[in-house]
Amino acid sequence: MQFFIFLSIFLLTTLISVLFSKLLNDGYRQKTYDQKVDSVASQCSWLGDQVVGVDFHLDDGSNSLSNQIDELAASMNGRIIVIKNNYKIIKDTHTDFQSRFFLNDNVLDVMDGKKTRIVSESGKYIEVMVPIVSKAGKQNHILGAVQATVPSEDMMGAVTEMEHRRNMLLVACIICGLSMAMIISYLLTRDLKKIQRDVDFIAAGHEDESIEETGFLEVRSIVQRFNEILGRMQTLEDSRQEFVSNVSHELKTPMTSMKVLADSLIQQGDQVPAELYREFMQDIVAEIDRENVIISDLLSLVKLDKKAAQLQITTVSINELLEIIMKRLKPLALQRNIELIFESFRPVTAEIDEVKLSLGLTNLIENGIKYNKDDGWIRVTLNADHKYFYVKVADSGVGIPEDCQDQVFDRFYRVDKARSRDTGGTGLGLAITKSVVSLHNGEIKLYSKVGEGTTFTLRVPLKYKG
Fold it and tell me: How many CB atoms lie within 10 A of CB 257?
């Protein structure tokens, strides 16, 4: 990346420098050319005025105009030809065509007044022709023409010097562009290289580290998001380790209890009373049942966690489903004289997996019974709109402390561990319920206050979208 940035900037600055120097040189060349032509044309016009003043008598002893023309041609390092309107050459500084006639397209155009100045190039020479005009009267009369032929090399000498300086400036710009490309490419990739080193360090096994947020705003934003991902990964890893620890503990506790009970029976020898033997065996059976419940809940969670797990979606009456669940749990509620109340505002039919959603709703209502007060109540409310159906499970139980409400859906989390074990809870019920609701693209919310009860609210789409 650094090489790509370096190469891009270097090529861009070089291209800009070359184009700028070319435009500058071309502009200066054209300007110099125009100035030289204007200077020659001006001198030819002045010479024409002088010729008119002596009435084309250049060899008259009363004037030295012929010598001045020779000197002017010598100063230009060129040739001057003075032509009368009868196309006769009255002065040629090279004397090759003296007193002869000069006739071509340029002379015709000038004599006819079609052009006031003609500039043409012939090989290494530039020819400039201007008319000799009589300014007497209101109308100008063409009396002749003056042509000056000068070497283009003498005229463009300044351009050559300019090109030399331009080339020096171009080399300096290319060197500056090279330096700038190296500096900019280093600055732009410095932070990325640092991030790469930090990422390599983290990938080497230091997942608890984070990347320092430095550099440009965009780079800091990327680092910030990366650190958030690292944080979530660390949280997930902590949760996984905690889950393994909790599973081990939960499975080990009943095993330990059974071992203690079995050891106690062995230590009693052969003289174990039948009543004591029966009591110990009942305790062992209870621990086995408890272990079976934990394993069943774990298997349910594993099945729900699999993204490939398919829901058996059918159209179900939610009213009838809740009535069946509450009828099934009514004997458990009667043991503590807890009243089960069902309120439905309208008939609701939805596309759900009846078995899985029934498991989630059962866990909510059963928890309301387990952690309720004697002679309490549980109110289940069903409502719906055009898109979702809503199930609210409210109880008059002990409530959940505010600092624990964000964790109650975690696996094996118990607000009161001692009481949960007494009631037979595994700490997996709410985790299963949340997974079930999530599989149905719904959501579950909790409101609770210690001593006043707890309310769970489910929102599930009426139409399932896989």
Answer: 17
Q: What number of helices (H) and strands (E) belong to the chain?
A: 11, 12
- Cα–Cα separations (whole angstroms), residue 415 to 258, 363, 392, 426: 26, 16, 21, 12
In whole angstroms, give the CA distance from residue 464 to residue 196. Answer: 44
- Which stretch of DSSP H or E encloses residue 305? helix 274-305
Confidence at 348, pLDDT banded by 50, 70, 90: very high
Measured CA angle at 73 (ends 102, 123), to 5 deg: 65
Q: Which residues contact 355 (CB under 8 A, 6 or more apart)?
A: 312
**258 vs 211: CA distance, rounded Å:** 50
Q: Output the pTM of the full model.
A: 0.47
d(CA 322, CA 383): 12
What single-letter DSSP state applies at residue 101?
Answer: B
The whole-angstrom distance between residue 155's C-alpha and the CA centroid of its chain comes to 57
- Say how far apart CA 196 and CA 72 lie, in whole Å: 76
Query: Which residues have CB under 8 Å from 69's CB, separation 6+?
Result: 47, 58, 80, 82, 91, 93
| Band (418; pLDDT cuts 50, 70, 90) | very low
